[in-house]
Amino acid sequence: MPETLSNPNPEDRAPEKPKDAPPADILPPDQRVGVAVVGLGTLTIDEVLPALAQGKQSRLAALVSSDTDKALEAARKYGLSEKNVYSYEEFDRIADDSSVDAVYIVLPNSMHADYTVRAAKAGKHVLCEKPMANTPEECETMIAACKAANVKLMIAYRCQFEAHHLEVRRMVQQREFGAVKLIEATNGQNMGDPTQWRLKRKLAGGGALPDVGLYCLNTVRFALAEEPLEVIARTYSTPNDPRFLEVEESVAWQMRFPSGAIANCLTSYGHFEARRTRFFAENAWFGMDPAFAYNGLRIQLGRALEVGQVVEERRMTEQNQFALEFDHFANCVLNDLEPFTTGEEGLQDVKIMAAIYRSALEGRSVALPEITQRDAFRGTKPSGMTQ
Ligand code: NAD
């Protein structure tokens, strides 16, 4: 007989333990990984700091910013001592701050490499925002610096820890509806202020592709667990639009994978926000819309009935994607595990993006090295990943 029937209130005979004892995976603050957050922009203020406050295994240990007032205000809000607020010039002093175990780099893309190398030299583990860097060479330098210092390096691909993305990957990997033949992925938005760093080549490394298009590339690779053999691409920028004097507006590219699957991806800085994926399998299509938002993600599934077809929705329990990502990172630091989204994973995306730009520039398809190993660049699977 099920236990709930024989004893309707299992709490009545629960073993003696304090009512407020945290679940096993919630660590007391002094055992958590202390994270110094570098860069106090939109992502840090709106998402990162609230998520760190929800973390189970990590905690905010320091803030690094050029804006002291803003940093002190954030420090007060999140209960951080003023002595743990640093300017960029003071960054290297974190080597002597024993409360800092790791550095999370949330700066413009061109600054990721320098701060990763400096964090590694300071003996701190590194979580680095996407894209990992602007060139494969910078990524290689970052990987080498972290290896030499024997610290972890993880790239902040939050979607790879999120339940809907894990479910789509499971549907693909288990062939729930047969083999996936084709994929569509789109991530675009209409950019405002032409002076922002995202539209400056030196700081951003490119336009829509490394910023939002990267989600299409990374998500398709993640769901298939395969690496593309070939890319073919086209770019376009509206002439005289002040936003696109240095970086591209739109990129359309196609990737061919060893299984035979073909992905068509679109990204733009010039259209109304749209972020979605669709996988076309033998017996169904499925995907997400929205696919890359911070919340409200949904899976849509279209499949055949005996007569006709049905469109269903699958919703997984929503959890803060950043908190999941931080807990995975902290778990890897605490237990000496290779993070799932390694530096090599970030490097692979940067290499593929370089091939996409080359294809568009030269008007031809560009072959990539054949990689047959599945999940070739990923480390320890996150909790919740079955496939
Ligand atoms: P942002 O413009 O809001 O903030 C950038 C921060 O860097 C600011 O604190 C700014 O003062 C500082 N900075 C230092 N030097 C700078 C310079 N020379 N020019 C401009 N800013 C400078 O940017 P953001 O949206 O927070 O993005 C930061 C990083 O996070 C980028 O690499 C971006 O790709 C990544 N990001 C990731 C996600 C995600 O969901 N994983 C979302 C947004 C941004």
Word description of this protein:
The chain is of the alpha/beta class. It folds into 2 domains: 29-156, NAD(P)-binding Rossmann-like Domain (Rossmann fold), CATH 3.40.50.720; 163-318 and 343-367, Dihydrodipicolinate Reductase, domain 2 (2-Layer Sandwich), CATH 3.30.360. It contains 10 helices and 15 strands. It has helices at 3-6, 42-54, 68-77, 112-121, 136-149, 163-173, 201-204, 208-224, 321-335, 343-362; strands spanning 33-38, 58-64, 85-86, 102-105, 125-128, 153-155, 180-190, 230-236, 250-256, 262-268, 270-281, 284-288, 299-304, 309-314, 366-367. The strands form 2 sheets. Strands 14-13-12-11-7-10-9-8-15 form a 9-stranded mixed beta sheet. A hairpin with a 2-residue loop joins strand 11 (270-281) and strand 12 (284-288). Helix 2 packs across helix 9, helix 5 (136-149) runs antiparallel to helix 10 (343-362) and helix 6 (163-173) packs across helix 8 (208-224). The two termini are 33 Å apart. The model is unreliable at 1-23 (pLDDT under 50). The chain binds nicotinamide-adenine-dinucleotide.
Query: What count of structural domains?
Result: 2
Note the quaternary state here.
single chain
- Secondary-structure arrangement, i.e. CATH architecture of the largest domain: 2-Layer Sandwich
Broad structural category? alpha/beta
The average pLDDT value, as a whole number, equals: 93
Write out the distinct hetero groups bound to the structure. Answer: nicotinamide-adenine-dinucleotide
The top-level CATH class of the largest domain is Alpha Beta
Main sheet record? 9 strands, mixed
The backbone outline, from C-alpha atoms, is globular
H/E element order: HEHEHEEHEHEHEHHEEEEEEEHHE
CATH topology of the largest domain: Dihydrodipicolinate Reductase, domain 2
Are there runs of 5+ residues with pLDDT below 50, and where?
1-23
Radius of gyration: 22 Å
How much helical structure, as a percent, in the residues? Answer: 25-40%
Strand runs, count: 15
CATH level-4 homologous superfamily of the largest domain? Dihydrodipicolinate Reductase, domain 2
**Within the largest sheet, what's the order of strands?**
14-13-12-11-7-10-9-8-15
What is the number of helical segments per DSSP (H or I, 4+ residues)? Answer: 10
| Spatial separation of the terminal alpha carbons | 33 Å
